[in-house]
Amino acid sequence: MIPISNPKSQFTLIQDEILKEMKSILQSGQYILGENVDELEQKIASRLGVTEAIGVGNGTDALVLTLDAYGIGKGDEVITTPFSFFATAEAITRVGATPVFADVDKETYNIDPSQIVKKISSATKAILPVHLFGQPADMDKINTIAAEHALVVIEDACQAFGATYKGKQAGALGDAACFSFFPTKNLPTMGDGGVITTSDPHLAKRLRTLRAHGSYKKYFHHEIGYNSRLDEIHAAIILIGLKHLDDWNEQRRKLARRYDKHLKDIATIKRPHVMQDASHIFHLYCIESENRDKLAEQLNKNDIQTGVYYPRCIHLQEAYHTLGYQTGDFPIAESVSGRLLAIPLYPGLSFDKQDEVIFALNKAVKE
Fold this sequence. Notes:
The strands form three sheets. Strands 1-9-8-5-4-2-3 form a seven-stranded mixed beta sheet, sandwiched between helices. It has a three-stranded antiparallel beta sheet with strand order 7-6-10, with no helix packed on it. The protein folds into two domains: 233 residues, Type I PLP-dependent aspartate aminotransferase-like (Major domain) (Aspartate Aminotransferase, domain 2); 122 residues, Aspartate Aminotransferase, domain 1. The longest helix has 32 residues. The chain is 40% helix and 13% strand. It has 367 residues and is an alpha/beta fold.
């Protein structure tokens, strides 16, 4: 089986470095929020061009803590996309606020700024755009809207570490940003991990307090917080990965360009759209087809794994039935949820294996 992603192949390449660091951490006796976390936070902040990076337990916690740190809660609304992983909206609900959805752009699948404007109310406190599949949202327009209405902009950059928009790094495009280091991400660890980035020192101080049970002095608790701390082993693995990230992302781009070249003549398949002023890092390579399910079935018969991202939009999830959304409320998001299919793309995927996918796709569309 050719997998859709293969984090094992990345970790295998750096396993000697990982084992060396694990041994060092074992002998140090410092396992949580130690020197590796400090170094990782500094290097991430420097790379992205922000002043602060705060390591946390996972990408979902990053979203929850950031919303909480901004004081967003009951009675507030946050505008976001209905076409994302569930955690994007879940975090809003978890702090007591209400997610308000705006439809997506039919080319990039990111939230459509023209639809955001229609959703702003007196209760709106923030906009939460997602840089879906590794391509940044249209941040200039989003930031302009936010400035006009005094709203906070929080990037969900969990799929976009290393992506850029008009020369700036994802993670430095809003007031704050949230990343995940889940094993299949472009910058992964062997488990869960996350980081929040910002250039607001006051927000950063509050986030560091919240992640440690509402305490910035041990055993003195200033507010109700969370237990969401990045541990040393994960930080060390991410630090190693950070050295390889640019190469890994370039491998993804090369594979994406090969797919573009060899699939461009298939009229029934729509390939990913890449904005001219952004760098897409292809966390996922998703094709669009009316025969999505048939293609997936045929590829599976050829031992090629595929993935559907996402089969049901967030506004139609059972967990959000109380919000009263109906099928048809966000036609573009609902359409692409029935048409998108992710095909194998990851660092270490050989051209020979990729050619097998291309051949199988060409065969499947003719059947």
